[in-house]
Structure formats: C-alpha cells, structure tokens
Amino acid sequence: MTAPRPLPDGVAGRGVPADQAAVRRGNLGRVLRLLRDEGPRSRARIAEETGLNKATVSSLVAELADRGLVTAGDVHRGGSVGRPGLPVQLDGRAVCAIGVELNVDFVAILVLNLRGEVLFEQRMALDVPALGAEATLDEVARLVQQARDTVRDAVPVGLTVAVPGLVRSVDGVVSLAPNLGWRDVPVLEGLAARLGPGCPVRVENDANLSAIAEWATGPEARTPDLVYLTGEVGVGGGLIVDGRLLRGTAGLSGEVGHTPLGDPDVVCGCGRRGCWETAVGLGALLRAAADPDDPVRDSTRDLEVRLAEIAARADAGDRRTLDALRQVGRALGTGAAVLINLVNPAVVLLGGYFAVLGRFLVEPMTAELQDRVFGPDLAGARVVLSELGFTAAVRGGAHVALETVFDDPTRVPPRAS
Amino acid sequence: MTAPRPLPDGVAGRGVPADQAAVRRGNLGRVLRLLRDEGPRSRARIAEETGLNKATVSSLVAELADRGLVTAGDVHRGGSVGRPGLPVQLDGRAVCAIGVELNVDFVAILVLNLRGEVLFEQRMALDVPALGAEATLDEVARLVQQARDTVRDAVPVGLTVAVPGLVRSVDGVVSLAPNLGWRDVPVLEGLAARLGPGCPVRVENDANLSAIAEWATGPEARTPDLVYLTGEVGVGGGLIVDGRLLRGTAGLSGEVGHTPLGDPDVVCGCGRRGCWETAVGLGALLRAAADPDDPVRDSTRDLEVRLAEIAARADAGDRRTLDALRQVGRALGTGAAVLINLVNPAVVLLGGYFAVLGRFLVEPMTAELQDRVFGPDLAGARVVLSELGFTAAVRGGAHVALETVFDDPTRVPPRAS
C-alpha cells in the first residue's frame, strides 16, 4: 500500500482540478486570436497585452510557429526563444477549413485558410429533395474530394455542412428540414463515413452559419448584437448576441419561420396554420405577384433570374408586383419586430431573396417596425441588406471550422522537423 | 520640442495600447470569482488554476485582503507574501449591495453582502401610479436610508432599481413603463441626487433582474440558457443566454408582452391591438375568471390573497375558474413557444402570478407547447415554477451591483491601516 500523496493545500475536495495542459491550450489560442484580431506584434507586447510573462509568451510563440500557425522572425525549432523584439504574425497558410451548403436546389462549397483567404469555391445545381439523402451525401463527398485535390498545400482542420432545418448539434443529425423532405438524417455520420478520418465534420443550421459569416467578414462585421433573416423557400433566423452565436440548449435556436404571425387559414409546409413563413417565404411573394402559369413561378428556372424579373416589373411600376412586395415587406416587419422586441439587435440583416429585393421591401418593413417595436427609435436597430449573397452560409461554415484552431491550436500537429 | 519616446516594439500603430492596471484589475476579479465559485483554496492552487505565477497571486491576494474582500491566514498588510500554503477565502462582510423594486402597488428593498447573505429586507405597499415619479423616488430614498442606517457595518457598493418597463441602461432613464404611467423618467439621476455620492445607482428592467436572481441563486442556478417570464399586470421576459443576461444593443431586450399573439380586437395598455399581454396578463385571467364586482377583481385588495382565492375556487372544481386558467395556460404556451423556437432555453421559469397559479397553468401550457414548438421534445425545454416569489427582482438587483466588485475589486477602497 502506497502512502497517499500529500495534497497541494488544505482544502481537498473543493473546486475543479487544475489542468495545466488546458491552461496552455487556452493561452496558445489567446495569443493566436490576438495576432488575428490586432495584427503582428512583438513577444514583449503580447506579454504586456495578455498579462502572461515573457518567458511563457516566447514558449507559446515557439510552439505556434512549430505548428505553422505563426511566423516569427528567428524562432528556432524546439522551443528556444529567439529575439523577443521581432514581430510575430499569423500564418496558417497550410491550414484550411471547408464550408458546404445543402439547399433545396443546389450544393455549394468554399475553402478558407486560417487567414480567411478563399482557396476554392464551387456551386452545383442539384435537386436535393428528389435525390434523397444518401445520393446527396455522395455528391457532397465527391465535391469535398475535388476541393481537397485542388487545395493540396493546405490541410483541412474541419468541415461544416449548412442545412436549412433543425440540426441536433451534438451528433449532427438533421432532425427536420421540411423543404428538403428530410427527417432524422444522420448527416455528420454519413459524411464522416464517406470522407474518412482526419477532417472532423459539423452540421449546422444555414441561417446560423450565415449570421456567423456576417459577423466575421461582412460590412457589419463585429456588430455584437445582430439578427440575420434569410428568405428562401423557408425563412431562417440566426442570432448573434454579445458577439456570440445564440445556439440555445440543443442548438435549435433561431426558428422564426413558424411563429404564428401569418393568416391562420393558410397551411404551412410544417403542417401548422398561420406560420410567419406562409406570409414572407418565397412562395408567398410569388403567389401574390404572379399567376400560377407565370414564368417567375416556374421553380425549374434559376431563382436569381426570376428575382431579377420581379425587380424589373417593380421598377416598371407594375401594380400587382409592387403590391405583393409591399405586402411581404409589411409581414417581414411584423416578424422582425418580434425579434427586435425580444433580443434588441443593433442590426437586422436581410439575406437570401430579402436582400435581392430589399430595396422594395425595406420601406414597408420599416413602417411596420415603427408601429410594432416597443422601444423608441426601433430600439436602436437598423435594417441592412446582406452583401455576401449566396455564399454567406458556406463562409460561415468554414469560419466555424477554423475557430476550432483558435480554441485549441494543438489540433494542428507540429510540422516534421 | 521633445524627441518622440521610442515605441516598445516595431509595429507601432497596430492594436490596443497595453494597460497594466486593467490587466491587474482583471486578475484581481478572476481570483475573487474563483474563491466565490469554487471555495477556499491556497495561493499555490490559485496560481495553478489561473495560470498566473505565484508571486503575482500572492500580491493579488494581499491586495484583496487589504480591501477586506478575502481573508488569508497570515497575509501582512502592504503586500508582503505570507505563508503561501494557507487557504484564502472570500470575505466581503463589510461590503454590501442594495436591490430596490418599484412596481404598480409596492416598493421593496433587499441588501446582500458579498457572500450573498441577506442583511436587510422590506416591502411596503405604495400606489406608485397615483403617487407619481418624484414622490415615489422620495419614498425609495427614505427606504434606502433606513436600510443603510440598519446595516451599519457593511458599506454599499451600489444599488439597482428594478422597474417594470423599458429602461435605457446607459443613463437609467425609464423610457416607458405603461403600468406605472411613466414615460422618460430619469430614475437614476433622481435617486443619485437624493442619495448623494458613494453608492452608484443602476436602473434595470424587473424581469431581467429576476432572471439574474434565478440564475445566481434559485434551484435552476447556473442553467446557461434560461427564459424567465413574469406575470403581473403586464408580462415581462428576461433571457439568460450562455450564462449571461441578454441585454441587447440598447438594453431593451425581453419585451415579450407586446408580441401580436392575442385577440386582434382587444386593445392593450400600450395602445396597440392584440398584444400577448392582453391574453396572459393578470387582467386577462381576472376578467375571464370573475365578474367585475367579484372581490378577486378588487385591485385595492392584496394580490396574494386574491390569487389564493382563485386557487381555492379551482381546487373546489369551479368551472369558470378552471376554464379561465386553461385559457390563460394555452395562451401562455403560444407565447412561450415563440421564445423556445427563437432562443431554445433549457428552462422556462414562470414567476409572478404564473408561479402562484402554476399548478393549474402548466398542463394547458405544455399541451400548447407540444403543438407549437418546432424542435422535438419541446427542443429540450422544461417549464419550472419560480421559488423566489416576489423577491426575485430585488435579489437580482443586489447581485448585479455586487458583480461590479468581481469585475473590478479596486472599487472597494483599502481599509485604513
């Protein structure tokens, strides 16, 4: 029987055990984020700004350089210190992350390196509901393989799939994506099996990822409180609160489309009545703007072309088109007011078709907000049209995967010496 | 002309200037929070757990002891180190904070010390709408003075006033509190003038403070994602997301009462039609449950007595009472479903009269949630009745003021040596 090791202090059993490795990982990430957000700087300045001591900073920088995440003038391999006055900067050209979007009629992919530079981008028409989940995942895997073959000098640290529906974040199962016709589809498992080990897969709601992309890179970047609303066949919402994505307890937040704010006689794709989606989704606009045999309602035609036709009619003063846009704009305001009253964002960002037709929607939407928002001056909110177009979700997906490196830089292995 | 001082490194003009004093304040707070959340521990263990070096920890502990915020075996005044093996623990008996609530028919006060112990508590009937803002603030100032006279050995670090309405957090102006009849009332300024310097005043929405109290001390303490709904004359919402109060960009979040989910023919106190408040506020229940001359509708009588009478009628099987409770319960579910779909909390906490009559409301509410929540199994949410009763808001207010000490322990002056 061995004698018990003396405890380090007199209060055994209280608190969490110390974990030096976790502290070290946290500090590596802190330094890496500082270099990303504030630019190159000396070890001495990093020490000042983080409150870490200089020897620790030198050792952290040496490790980050070893992993190819920073370049630092004359750091020597193996942790030796180098001249502490020379600037350290973010590198990460050898590290990349992949964003994929599955939607009703396309699949898209985009690859970013750690510096946020686009290494690969592609979009492919695909009838996902008709194809079904298995064949769709085959296509996605093929597209990912093509991207990896093209981007040979950067190793992917992760892949995020954007899906228009409810995603159980813990295991990447798409619980419900009515517009894809999917229920309980194990997207993470299916893709991981197809792609093999080495590139962790996440699955996330498309509006959440779009909100992240806007927060990370758009003209409203770093707006701490931001609501993203995307108009497609369905309506998605992504909420950034205090600079962080509001995921909620089960990753099921932002589900705005089924708020009972629509006409209670209209049946939604989800089976309920009066969902907001039935008043502001693409179908609501098209039904109000055109007869069933009008080419703008032909869903086999490219959406952007059809939206351009609607805009042209509105510009030409077509009464029915203008009325339809006004009606959708008002309804957009009704739902956006609920969001503003609840989460009080600085910016409501409109994406998807809301952005494309935004110049017709914002005025009636704002009039409705003025009636409905409880706080003065729209509680400080501005309505802004997204400029990221249809790449918002894939960009957000790549950013989420890159973030894992900032959380724990040891995920990137040291380079062979 | 003086020569420019040499810059500390070669990357002038990038990033934020270092601020050693801010780093020190942050580290003092980190140590103090560790002691509060994880209990007493040695300096050596604090160093391990924070990643700070031991000399820094000893100096931080000495400063905290000097300010009366911790006790540490044998720390000597003036920053000398003491024996580093002896445990350090939170003290703060000499530091307190005050929570005050203004509501339609009462004013309440509660004083907590840094350890969360109640030092003083009082509630006083007051017809706030009839009295008006100035006379009400006079009464509050008198009550605060009484509390300070009673709690002589603890110095208040701050006071938070809870108000049922929209509060502009930056200057503590109550923009709009329809049920008090207040608009643009400078509560912070008015109280600060009455109380004199030395005890900073904040003003905050009552539901936000109640949510903070539940998060800090209730049976659902530390639930990272929590929605608090309080039923009074109006309906208030407080949202905790990821362990932090969702304030929004202008501090105007959580305004659920005016979501257009009620009967569009019913006019709300705010002047709009169909607000959710008109379906679930206290008035909606009372109108449905009793005729105008019924004593339960006599607002000059104590609310808790009237609620007990309603509960007794329901227990006795009174049809009209049971129908009214079922109707309000369903309507409660309609609005709670919107919140669950948007922010996906783990817990929906019912406060105010919703808690008192909760055993009759939860069943119809849950039935409605099952129809309305988009995610499976209510998206992981549980409905829970608050146990803090009518002290939730004042407790939350005191906690918010105490938190400023954990953010910056140098707010508490060193004790005279």
TrEMBL record, chains A, B:
InterPro entries: ArsR-like_HTH (IPR011991), ATPase_NBD (IPR043129), HTH_MarR-typ (IPR000835), ROK (IPR000600), WH-like_DNA-bd_sf (IPR036388), WH_DNA-bd_sf (IPR036390). Keywords: Membrane, Transmembrane, Transmembrane helix. SUPFAM superfamilies: Actin-like ATPase domain, Winged helix' DNA-binding domain. Residues 30-72 form the HTH marR-type domain. The chain crosses the membrane at residues 342-362. PANTHER family: BIFUNCTIONAL UDP-N-ACETYLGLUCOSAMINE 2-EPIMERASE_N-ACETYLMANNOSAMINE KINASE, ROK (REPRESSOR, ORF, KINASE) FAMILY. This is ROK family transcriptional regulator. The lineage of its organism: Bacteria, Bacillati, Actinomycetota, Actinomycetes, Geodermatophilales.
